[in-house]
Design goal:
With 207 residues, this protein is α+β, with helices and mostly antiparallel strands. It has one domain (5-168): Pnp Oxidase, Chain A (Roll), CATH 2.30.110. It has helices at residues 5-8, 12-21, 59-66, 113-127, 141-147, 172-185, 190-205, and strands at residues 25-30, 36-41, 44-45, 49-55, 69-81, 95-110, 150-165. The chain has a seven-stranded antiparallel beta sheet with strand order 2-1-5-6-7-4-3. Strand 3 and strand 4 (49-55) form a beta hairpin.
């Protein structure tokens, strides 16, 4: 992925807001023989690290035992558009819009039951804040089997790169036309894409 300045000039607070709004992230690891592996997981994020859990027999756990350095990516696929929304003849104007943040991380893996139980409570606080479950503790027979089946993973962030590809390379009037076309087309994600492009227009108006 190429990180052109026009797409990476995103306020840090907007990157943080975006990352915290997403529900799944991609973990990328590399095995001892160089084979890459990719997994998609729920996560918690505190601004400095991500927390996820994996099954102990997962190949990515083996990868992290050899190479704790890994990548964690959070992204949102928004929309593809036809070329003629930008130019009536030039086919290369067809494109896709997305928001992506990639984190270079150092992983710490733990099978400690108390740590796993605490991590599960943090994940539940995010994904099921309304409750409806018995608190997870390491000595509760209800959770004993599951806890000893999984591994807690903490991903300490070393650096990050963001790319919000939202037509910032187009003049404001061209962007506004794309927003109108997205809203007229009305595919499931088109309104979200239109709102994202509108955000870039509003950002430029503040300058």
């Amino acid at each position: 992925m190429i990180f052109h300045d026009v797409y990476t000039n995103v306020p840090p607070e907007e990157i943080e807001r975006f990352v915290r709004s997403q529900e799944l992230g991609r973990l990328v690891t590399v095995a001892a023989d160089g084979t890459p592996h990719l997994g998609l997981y729920p996560f918690t994020y505190d601004g400095a690290a991500f927390e996820i859990h994996l099954v102990r027999s997962d190949e990515q756990i083996a990868d992290l035992g050899v190479r704790p350095r890994c990548m964690f990516e959070v992204d949102e696929v928004l929309a593809t558009i036809p070329s003629y929304w930008v130019d009536p003849e030039n086919a290369i104007m067809a494109t896709a819009y997305h928001r992506t943040v990639m984190f270079d991380c150092e992983a710490t893996v733990s099978g400690d039951a108390a740590e796993l139980a605490a991590q599960q409570m943090r994940l539940l606080a995010r994904y099921q804040p309304e409750g409806g479950f018995r608190p997870v503790t390491p000595d509760d027979p209800l959770y004993h089997g599951a806890i000893h089946h999984i591994t807690a993973v903490r991903l300490d962030v070393r650096s990050r790169r963001a790319k919000f590809k939202l037509a910032q390379n187009r003049p404001l009037d061209a962007r506004a036309k794309i927003v109108d076309e997205l809203r007229k087309r009305g595919r499931p994600n088109d309104e979200r894409a239109a709102a994202a492009l509108t955000w870039t227009i509003e950002q430029e108006a503040k300058r």
